[in-house]
Amino acid sequence: MKGPTMKDTAVLRKLLFPAAVALIVWPAGRLPAATPPSVVVILSDDQGWGDLSLHGNQNLSTPHVDSLAADGASFGRFFVCPVCSPTRAEFLTGRYHPRSGVHSTSAGGERMDLDETTIAETFRAAGYATAAFGKWHNGMQYPYHPNGRGFDEYYGFCSGHWGNYYSPMLEHNGRLVRGNGFVIDDFTDRAIRFIEQHRDRPFFVYLPLNTPHSPMQVPDRWWGRFKDKKLPMHHREPERETVPHVRAALAMCENIDWNVGRLLRRLDELGLARNTIVVYFCDNGPNGFRWNGGMKGRKGSTDEGGVRSPLLIRWPGTIEGGRKIPQIAAAIDLLPTLADLAGVEPIGKKPLDGVSLKRLLLEDSPRWPERMIFSHWNKRVSVRTQQHRLDHQGKLYDMVADPGQYRDVAGQQPQVAARLRQAAADFRQQVLGEYEPDDRPFLVGHPDYRYTQLPARDAKTHGNIQRSNRFPNCSYFTNWTSLDDRITWDAEVLAGGTYEVEVYYTCPPSDVGSIIELSFGRSRLRGRIVEPHDPPQHGREHDRVERMESYVKDFKPLKLGAIRLEAGRGELTLRAVEMPGSQVMDFRLLMLSRARDAGEVSHR
Predict the structure, then answer these.
(1) Cα 394 from chain centroid?
(2) Cα distance between residue 172 and residue 355, in whole Å
(3) How many Å apart are CA 32 and CA 238, to the nearest integer?
(4) For the range 304-308, what are the long-range contacts, defined as Cβ-Cβ under 8 Å and sequence gap of 24 or more?
(5) What is the pLDDT of residues 516-551, one digit of tens each?
(6) What count of other Cβ atoms lies within 10 Å of the Cβ of residue 445?
(7) Which helix (H) or strand (E) holds 41?
């Protein structure tokens, strides 16, 4: 990715804030507290703006999330991206996601470029204890990994979605572990434990929950409330609703609310609530057709319903309770806002696209410049101002008079339409123009990190091998039926050395005996599959509605042995050299662990 020139930056700043560029850096609204506030950021996955009772949805009840608005501030027009990983990147960097190289939700395209600086790095540099618990979705191999992006503690999964929500395989600081119960409860437990352990110092906790993203799994306690419930409120096109899916999503949202309540209650019990900023938002529009305030669009769309999210910020004693903020804002604003509230200086060298919202949160009737917020995905660009939205087709909507985007007013307001069309064209040139062909390899063996996970998601197949599902994120490889078949990764070994290799596999008794070989450059490592392991697919038993993604298996680690890898870029290849049965195996992932030599400093 090429960086912006000074000229590009100046032009885009003028575009984003044409009325008052000088107001980008505003004076402080209040002096910071003597003790820096801690920060908890909760991000839900595929929960739309309408999936809160706060916004008038009578289909469900979310009292704990709603309480954040009653006890703090709520933004009426807050915008994220149409899909998962771009929103996460914009929150983490304060910059539009194309700038950081994020162009996809899988297979490496979700990674943020390594020259980006994250909000966690900013807070850690200020002395905060930092942790993330849940779905990362911005890179798996270190230093794309959360531990390489400023988070001292990480527990969860780095992929874009997960195939089972009940005690699944997860990771803890790079090491694979078994989860404990329903993942949302588990992630919240971990966040609470971290807060308890760091109660005597400022902490920055990021809790990116992975529901109500599919598969639609939720414990009986919540599903029982919804499985036969008659829903009084519906999508603007009710015939497009899949009612069981709606019920499952709402049940998952109520489970999130219960967990938010547990976390808020623990902050109260520890005496930390008054000096902890709690933030709640979502990553995109709803993952289905359901009530969403009559807005046009859902997940994947750059229309209002695809990118509008709640934003709730509570800081008792500092942010007035019940404060409603009408000015438009976006995920890019969260880094500068939280840093400003906490009195923390951002450490990144690149210019931010977001601005601090501190004055909106703390001052009465602050002067505020007109601005534009851009939404982008899949070559579509939409532009939002306080009054209007220009959609990706160039149609103009008055969002005050017509919040459902029913009437194109470009003919009645040609000057506005022309100005926003030019802004969209400038965004394409100046921001999307930074995209280059993604030639980034998958990194192996960073000297500061022990573990490298290389899943099927990030690999390419050759020959007969098939992916278990067309959605790569939590898939595995099957139909490995020939010695001509192979699995490859475009890899770069960052630090030469010896690595212990484990292959996560399944294989029925009738096919045991294949010899597999891992190779990179001149290095070769072979091992034989000697133990059968043939568990059935699972996940269906927990699904409330039929899923689109792959079901999963409990894959077994095969200790292949140790291989010496030389630093450099090349093709990492897994193939079979003997196959006595009808297939080699089903394959889920490679785990490479740096061997600990005598006298070596211990890495994670």
Answers:
(1) 29
(2) 33
(3) 49
(4) 304/384, 304/389, 304/399, 304/403, 304/405, 305/48, 305/49, 306/82, 306/375, 307/79, 307/80, 307/81, 307/82, 307/375, 307/382, 308/49, 308/77, 308/78, 308/79, 308/80
(5) 999 999 999 999 999 999 999 999 999 999 999 999
(6) 24
(7) strand 38-45
Chain Cα centroid distance, residue 305? 19
Amino acid letter for position 288 = G
User: Which residue type, as a one-letter code, is found at position 446?
Assistant: H
Terminal Cα distance for the chain, rounded? 29
Angle between helices 334-342 and 84-93 (to 10 degrees): 30
Q: Which of 42, 40, 60 is nearest to 50 (CA)?
A: 60
Dihedral of alpha carbons 555, 557, 558, 562, sign: positive
Please name the residues in contact with 352: beta carbons below 8 A apart, sequence gap of 6 or more. Answer: 93, 94, 95, 332, 335, 336, 346
Q: How far apart are CA 125 and CA 217, in angstroms?
A: 38
Alpha-carbon Rg for the chain in angstroms: 24
DSSP helix/strand/coil, 99:
helix
Give the chain's residues under pLDDT 70.
1-34, 597-604
pLDDT at site 477 = 98
The phi, psi pair for 420, rounded to 5°, reads -75, -30
The β-bridge partners of 381 are: 376
What global pTM score does this model have?
0.93
Residue 553's Cα: distance from chain center in Å? 24
Q: Kindly tell me the burial class for residue 541, based on how many C-beta atoms sit within 10 Å of its own C-beta (0-12, 13-18, 19 or more).
A: exposed
Residue 253, Cα to own-chain centre: how many angstroms? Answer: 17
Place of tokens 């204890």: 129
Name all domains of the chain by residue range, CATH numbers in brackets: 42-369 (3.40.720.10), 442-594 (2.60.120.260)
Q: Given the structure tokens 């909507």, which residue do they identify?
A: 397
Scan for tokens 């352990």, then name that residue. Answer: 197
Block residue for tokens 């703090």:
72
| CA angle at 483 for the pair 482 and 485, rounded to the nearest 5° | 70
Q: How far is CA 299 from CA 83, 240, 255, 546, in A?
A: 6, 14, 21, 19
| 168 within 8 A of 162, measured Cβ to Cβ | yes
* Token duo for residue 440: 């980034």
- Token pair of 131 as six digits: 């942790």
Angle at 13 between CA 11 and CA 18, to 5 degrees: 95
- Residue 45, classed as helix, strand or coil, is strand
Pairing mode of beta strands 380-384, 373-377: antiparallel
User: 346, 336 in Cβ contact below 8 A?
Assistant: yes
The token duo for 47 is 């929960």
Q: Which candidate, 245, 333, 281, places its Cα nearest to that of 65?
A: 281
Burial class (CB in 10 A: 0-12, 13-18, 19+), 173: middle
Select from 281, 273, 264 the least CA-distant residue to 192. 264
Q: Which residue has the tokens 């009840």?
A: 61
Side chain identity at 314, as an amino acid letter? R
